[in-house]
Design goal:
Layout (H helix, E strand, L loop, with lengths): L3 E6 L12 E7 L12 H10 L3 E4 L17
Parallel strand pairs: 1-3
Antiparallel strand pairs: 1-2
């Protein structure tokens, strides 16, 4: 079974900035640790290809306030 890597686009980044735009949120089905906090799309694609994992882009909602945050730490 191929693993899955869930990632999202960073919110506080501008198009003209030369910083990585994506953040890995979760992964499943792989035995992989991410050491970089933010990654470029090309880096994510290379990692996914190397470990035969599927990349899944998470969509964020319209509301950017704190009301949409959920505590999932248990």
């Amino acid at each position: 079974m191929a693993g899955k890597i869930f990632y999202r686009e960073r919110r506080k980044i501008h198009e003209e900035e030369k910083q990585p735009r994506f953040k890995v949120v979760a992964e499943t089905g792989t035995n992989l640790k991410f050491y970089g906090e933010h990654l470029r799309k090309q880096e994510l694609e290379q990692i996914a290809e190397a470990i035969n994992a599927e990349l899944i882009l998470l969509k964020h909602g319209e509301n950017k306030g704190k009301d949409e945050l959920a505590d999932v730490r248990g």
